[in-house]
Specification:
mainly alpha; Four Helix Bundle (Hemerythrin (Met), subunit A); about 0% strand
Amino acid sequence: MSGEALAFWVLAVITLGSGVVVVTSHNIVHSAVALVPAFLGVTGLYVLLNAEFVAVIQVLIYAGAITVLILFVIMLTEGGTGLRVPQRNEQGAVGAAVALAMAALLSTVALRATWGIGTRTLVYTPGDIGQSFLGPNLLVFEGTSIVLLVSLIGAIIIARKED
């Protein structure tokens, strides 16, 4: 096994393991903190893909800013009070069934696909990413901006105190 393959498997285990902790933890603060190794594992995968710029952005935005934002929200709401509120989810069986169906579908596709080795190397430079945002992915980029704006307005409306 090559060093690159070993690094991939280590990063995959870190990412998936911390993702499982995020989903299964009964403490919301532990779930938020477990996001950090998941984000850093994805960062390592970007480095293996030679996408250093995207990896740096991943660390700055997700592992840094988004995790701190989530922790602030938890601490400013009732989630950070330390009270153990029992979580009930009546849709756990349905979620597990959908997850197993998706795993079966993805496994089937992955095993039946013919995987060729590409000869083209991908280069992720800031200029290429900017051209992609302003070119073929402009509609997706602007749609994401609108979704973020609407969620920000919704958060302000929810957090506003009634007189």
